[in-house]
């Protein structure tokens, strides 16, 4: 194909130069001719082929006009070619942009690998929480579904082979906060997690399993958060059966809040220099309730979660888990800095 293209381009170039030379040859000998040298002939051909047509040069002889006519016909072909190429170029650019070809600069965002109705529900909760989200899928029809479901711009979609891990740099995977692996089969999820961790060892993965007997295997392979789909559903259903009011609150807390007054469960890391550093957990609990009408639930330290501990001095890099409305959450932010 490449050789054929080179041959066609070479032949077209040769014919063009021959036509220009013949135009010069016939017109330079004509009485009152105005195309007197090759420079004039090339200028006339370029102006004609590009459909500009200044009219400063024009052929007078029969053969000169015949060659000029061929240039006019050629201009139609070139114009059509330019319009076609421009249209194709714009179409390819729009398609590549739509499919995530040019990547995103999102940071501290969430990533979902694998798209279906379940991952769409997960995505809705992430986007409602005002978190940036990137979705990686290998199905072109999913791109339209994702962009239709999340039109506001905080959800980026990438179409690629799910095994071409090097392409995941386009969603800035190394700077993502969490990566959720969404596959139907637990074994497939395990193999995928292993291969993904080989390429990006520092990412934090989340998986949801049907068979929780595999949890230790996933944890051993470096998957930080392993959740049971069935266990979560069964616990919530059981709670609705024997303690429905508690279940309603739990369901409300699990769902992302949609306005400033709704309660939600939050987590926030204590930065260096924060007023919370060195403070007793109980003192922080009282301060959260008295000053911010929020309830402190626990502390995560180096991957270990302490649920409502009795005596614990808070440290830099500790992550506090608490219940608050979105309005109160914003008021609490300076406390962590």
Automatic annotation (TrEMBL):
Organism: Aquimarina brevivitae
Name under which the protein is recorded: Voltage-gated potassium channel
One of the Pfam families matching this protein, by short name: TrkA_N
Transmembrane segments: 7-26, 67-88
Gene Ontology CC: one annotated term: plasma membrane
RCK N-terminal domain span: 111-228
Domain Potassium channel stretches: 13-86
Localisation per UniProt entry: Cell membrane
PANTHER family: POTASSIUM CHANNEL PROTEIN 2-RELATED-RELATED (PTHR43833), POTASSIUM CHANNEL PROTEIN YUGO-RELATED (PTHR43833:SF9)
Membrane topology per record: Multi-pass membrane protein
Alphabetical list of InterPro entries matching this protein: K_chnl_dom, NAD(P)-bd_dom_sf, RCK_C_sf, RCK_N, Trk_Ktr_HKT_K-transport
Keywords on record: Ion channel, Ion transport, Membrane, Transmembrane, Transmembrane helix, Transport
GO biological process, one term: monoatomic ion transmembrane transport
Transmembrane helix found in the keyword field: yes
